[in-house]
Amino acid sequence: MPTTLPETSELLQSLGTATGLGLLVGLQREWVQNRVAGIRTFALLTLFGALTGLLGNAYGSWVIAAGFITFACIVVLGSWLRQAKRPPVTGLATEMAMLVMFTVGIITMLGERLLAVMIAGGVMALLQSKKALHAMVRHFGEEELRAIVRLVLLGLVILPALPNREMGYLGVLNPFAIWLIVVLIVGISLAAYLAEKFLGGSQGAAVASILGGLVSSTATAASSARRSKISSAGSMSLAAMALIASAVAFVRLLAEVMIVASDHIRELLPPLVAMMFWVGLIAAVAHRLAENADSEPVDEHPPSELKNAVVLGLLYALVLVIVAYTRQHSSSAGLYVAAFLSGLPDMSAITLSTSRLVNTGHLETSVAWRMILVGGMANLCFKMFFVIALGSRAYIKPALLGLVLSVAGGAAILAFWH
């Protein structure tokens, strides 16, 4: 008797993960001469394997065995075609797509019509994107591929193996969270390099900084500061990256407040929105100056940030210990000092905890938004440390000026907002 299939959302996550992993391995296989399978074929075969596993869980292991035998026959066919050197039919994308669609037909009879439609649409898009995918692969060199493999090892192999719990001195050291900072710095540096390579100039830098601000503005600032010493030009553009990421971080901060303390947004949001617009204005001016600059950041080689990222990860851990120690032994320091210390490594912690206290009635809104703003200003000060410690001389002046002006605007809001 068949068993019940998992929920559609869970199925989509599993199938999407399988397809993404296939694309990742297929990217590397595109570089092999006389290859049997490329980027599209690997995506399709992993999708077929996931669908076979899905049906195997429902109907028994014989389905998986049949799928494996079918796939083995396809591989033998591809090897024979390669040895026979029969161009131009050397890939197996069509054959794998036929297998996937055969499995999709079975899924429709199990009542998963929406899932079947989405898979079929994805297969169609994957087959149609042959030229675009191959053109993208041609832009990658061996060094870029090596950098992607390094990121995969850091994020998909080492990171999941680390314990995700608090431990160590004062119970604030989380190996998973600390290594995640390392992964973010390496990933953001690589993303910025690829965005500038494909989009070019300040446009690519802006896209990379927006994405970095959504993930970690602190890691983005550290990455741009480090790149300013490696790249011989484009310091203004790199400084704009750090400022844009900081502005985007305040957008994320507002979203967190609206989600956690939705009943108090009228009291909490106005001063925080003012701060967001102020930092955004500074970032926009910096981006405009970067566009008018004579030079843009040009990296001939992908950034190698692993050693520096590990050092910054250890520094992040040290800050966590200092914050925990100070909060434990300075009970008279007050809420704002605690907010400042908590906001140094990241703004989300103080924002979420303070919003939660407001929502439960344990903290007044007039105190809460000031604590959140102080935490945001502390994070801007923390970025100044990276700017000064890691940046080049040409980078330090515009980046530091933008951050100082941002903090000054926050101080004015604290002083004059009623």
What is the compact description of this entry?
The protein has 418 residues and is an all-alpha fold. Helices cover 79% and strands 0% of the residues.
Can you give the helix content as a percent range? over 70%
* Strand and helix order: HHHHHHHHHHHHHHHHH
Strand content range: under 5%
> How many domains make up the coordinates?
2
Radius of gyration: 25 Å
Total of helices: 17
The biggest beta sheet is recorded as: none
- How far is the N terminus from the C terminus? 68 Å
Question: Which stretches of 5+ consecutive residues score pLDDT under 50?
Answer: none
Shape: globular
Number of strands: 0
Alpha-beta classification: mainly alpha
Name the average pLDDT: 75
Describe this structure in words.
- The protein has 418 residues and is mainly alpha-helical.
- It has two domains: 8-139, no CATH class; 142-416, no CATH class.
- It is built from 17 helices and no strands.
- It has helices at residues 8-29, 39-59, 61-84, 93-108, 113-128, 130-139, 142-158, 175-199, 201-215, 217-230, 235-260, 265-292, 306-329, 335-343, 347-359, 365-390, 393-416.
- Helix 11 (235-260) runs parallel beside helix 17 and helix 15 packs antiparallel against helix 16 (365-390).
- The radius of gyration is 25 Å and the shape is globular.
- The model has no long low-confidence stretch (mean pLDDT 75).
